[in-house]
Design brief:
Structural class: mainly alpha
Order of helices and strands: HHHHHH
Radius of gyration: 55 Å
Strand content: under 5%
Largest sheet: none
Number of helices: 6
Number of strands: 0
Helix content: 40-55%
Oligomer: single chain
Length: about 210
């Protein structure tokens, strides 16, 4: 007695023409035992192309040409070699061909250190001249005329005139200090002169 046919099994084929077929393409074995049909083999997945074998786009070619231009601008390529590589880059079909054209170049321009150049003296700020020492002394004596009641007025005038003469000759700074000493010095001298004149006039009038 034959076993019932199952859906996962193939059909057998009998010489008597029972209408049950065996596996396609297999001869009849002479047995009524059903023969199992093998599972169909699926085709292997298509291998993905490698990065070097990938077709190059217009953007890939332009990037490669930019690298070539940077190398030529930095003096790494001669004119003839640069022209040949650019022509091959625009005619390249794959990314691998473009990679070979720029494999011995840096991926972009290399920044070069800026050479140090001295700033011309014309653009440098003018150095401040040193203040004359006598001008400083004249200003100090002039300011001391107030607390000393004018006793430092004469030194202030002497130092102020001497300082202005030296400044005009040497080009030193401090002319404003010398003028300050002169102003306070002459004011104190004038005040003392008026005071002495009044005292003399009062003495003569009383005598």
């Amino acid at each position: 007695m034959s076993q019932p046919w199952q859906p996962w099994q193939g059909k057998d084929e009998s010489p008597s023409g029972s209408g049950r077929d065996g596996p396609a393409g297999r001869p009849w074995t002479g047995s009524h035992t059903p023969v199992a049909r093998p599972w169909p083999a699926y085709p292997p997945p298509q291998a993905q192309p490698s990065a070097s074998g990938m077709l190059a786009s217009h953007a890939d070619r332009e990037r490669a040409v930019d690298v070539l231009r940077a190398g030529y601008g930095e003096g790494r390529l001669e004119k003839d070699e640069f022209d040949k590589r650019v022509e091959r880059a625009y005619g390249a079909r794959t990314v691998g061909e473009l990679a070979l054209l720029v494999s011995d170049l840096p991926l972009g321009p290399v920044p070069q250190p800026a050479p140090f150049t001295a700033v011309p003296r014309t653009f440098l700020p003018a150095p401040r001249p040193r203040a004359n020492g006598k001008a400083v002394g004249a200003a100090v004596c002039g300011l001391l005329c107030v607390p000393t009641f004018g006793f430092t007025g004469i030194p202030a005038v002497i130092l102020g005139h001497s300082a202005r003469a030296e400044i005009e000759r040497t080009g030193e700074g401090g002319d404003g200090l010398a003028l300050t000493g002169l102003v306070f010095g002459w004011l104190s001298i004038a005040a003392w002169s008026i005071l002495m004149t009044l005292l003399i006039a009062v003495g003569l009038a009383s005598g």
